[in-house]
Amino acid sequence: MKYLLEILQDLKNIIILIKNFTFMQELIIDSERKLQIDASKLPTLIEHFYRWEKETPQRTFLRQPIGSTWKEFSWAEVGNQARRMTAALKALQLPPKSHIGIVSKNCVHWVMSDLAIMMSGHISVPLFPTLTSEQIHQILAHSDTQVLFVGKLDNWALMKDGIPDSVQVITYPHYTCSDLVRGDNFLLWDDLIESNEPSSENYIPKLSDLITICYTSGTTGTPKGVMLSYYAFAKVYDAIKEKSRYENGNTSFLSYLPMNHMAERLVVEAAGIVSGGQISFVESLDSFFQNLKDTRPTHFFGVPRIWAKFQQGVLEKMPQKKIDTLFKIPIISRLVKKKIRKGLGLDRVRVALTGAAPMPTATLRWYHQLGLVIREGYGMSENTAACTAMPEENPKIGTVGIPHPGCELSIDPENGEILMRAEWVMDGYYKNPEKTAEVIQDGWLRTGDQGKIDEEGFLIITGRVKELFKTSKGEYVSPFTLESRFAGNVFIEQICVVGAGLPQPIALLILSPEGQRAELNTLTESLKNTLVEVNQGLYPYEHIKKLIVIRDEWSVNTGILTPTLKTKRNVIDGKYQDFYEKWFKHHDQIIFQ
């Protein structure tokens, strides 16, 4: 027995030695990689800012709408405020590379805060401006955030109790259309700007340093902190510079999606800094279209729901039949297309992008007819929102484009999962090595999406690995594939296919404004016809049995949509699952709830 115990102890010691050896090897490899990264000559994001601050100090960089007027900030003015805030942060005597949060809707001070965090050698932790007190507390505690910039918000009262007492809050100046943030121990932006001289140092971080910890929107559970380096941003812009179509002094962006979302951070904020361009902000949802018309950006990124709303707005003023007739007349066609683009504020767009969710092919074709080629992109926070993009020449509808230079794609033969690798993949999830090991394996990032690569190298996304559900007949259904087939019906604004455990799937939908105004018989007939069209060509087990028109609101505020307007399927199931069987057995094909 004693001999057996000695053997077991020896084995334990050997295992410990192997683990230590593996850990040391990983440290050596990681150290060597960082040395290689820091030896590269790519400029960091903050160095791009220093360049434009010096070369074009009087050129407008940021534009903030206040009612019907715009307040403009030059590169020099933005630099002055960011440098004064840098001095204020240094005065707090935080440890190097401390974590500093930002929670605010998009505005000029959001960018100034981000620049000040970079200039002072710290790491940003941007947060969605729609979080509850429980959610913000969870992220601030997990991320070890020490300072929090708080700004333009609609729900400060629901959020403030979640901020730990240990976190020093710095509040932006008051914006219209937002709560006024107050607190006895809060520092005020204007006071700090007034009392601090601008820092004269051009701090340059190492490329291997972290620039941000970006928390995911939590569509599949607890948000995870994605750690991204300056190198990740630099490599992405080096990879896409040839197709970005930036023009010095003539590149402009409109910012409206949450700035902590990686796609907005990359293609608007960072793009504006890299290109020396101009970023304008949306004041509120009510002013969105007017702000867009005032801005007339050269580069516009819109999630699919935004493009669909643009389309619905046009069709409310000019029915599709009339548009089709006018498009058949050559001279009139050009004038009408130009008028529609100008009416939307998109007449100067050189690069129109979409991503963050599937873009219906019918919507893409509608814009193509309009003379606006929307280029789909595919990415996620974990790969700095950069994986594939649609080429400007010969776009291929039905795909999300081809890999960026420096990006490799593969498909897992077992479950069809899309795998990618590139030098801009995250360093990992903050304080979560187990999840990191799950998604990064042998250098490949497991995206969680399913897809296939066609013979020309274009990527087609077919669904989410975890969103497949099994019917009572034992067949797997991909809701993503089915939902995209409904895009041609202008009466439908949102749709979610469900049906785990049912013989066949059913679909829950929210009507568009046009659908809400439609006469009941017209609406019902339209939905029935669409259902017939959708089911054509599908396997029998995929046929959608019923359409249920839901009268509830699906929004960020109701918790059904993420801040980037993706549907939370688990929330929909939790809310409506008890009715699925009843709806399935209902005698009507179209059910109004």
Structure, explained:
This protein is α/β, with parallel strands linked by helices and 593 residues long. Helices cover 38% and strands 21% of the residues. It contains 20 helices and 28 strands. Strands 4-3-5-6-7 form a 5-stranded parallel beta sheet, with helices on both faces. A 5-stranded mixed beta sheet has the order 12-13-14-15-16. Helix 3 packs across helix 7. The chain is globular, with a radius of gyration of 26 Å.
- Residues in helices, as a percent range: 25-40%
Number of H- or I-type helical stretches: 20
Strand pairing plus helix content: what structural class? Answer: alpha/beta
Query: What is the overall shape?
Result: globular
* Cα-based radius of gyration, to the nearest Å: 26 Å
Please provide the count of β strands.
Answer: 28
Residue-averaged pLDDT: 88
Low-confidence stretches: none
Percent of sequence in beta strands: 15-25%
Chart the SSEs and their pairings.
Blueprint: H1 2-39, H2 45-55, E1 60-66, E2 69-74, H3 75-91, E3 99-103, H4 108-119, E4 123-127, H5 133-143, E5 145-150, H6 156-159, E6 168-171, E7 187-188, H7 189-195, E8 210-215, E9 225-229, H8 230-240, E10 252-255, H9 262-275, E11 278-281, H10 288-295, E12 299-301, H11 304-317, H12 320-327, H13 330-344, E13 351-354, H14 361-369, E14 374-378, E15 388-389, E16 402-403, E17 408-411, E18 417-421, E19 428-429, H15 433-439, E20 440-441, E21 444-453, E22 459-464, E23 469-470, E24 476-477, H16 479-483, E25 492-498, E26 506-511, H17 513-517, H18 520-535, E27 547-549, H19 569-576, H20 580-585, E28 590-592
Parallel strand pairs: 1-11, 3-4, 3-5, 5-6, 6-7, 10-11, 12-13, 13-14, 26-27, 27-28
Antiparallel strand pairs: 1-2, 8-9, 9-19, 14-15, 15-16, 17-18, 18-21, 20-21, 21-22, 23-24, 25-26
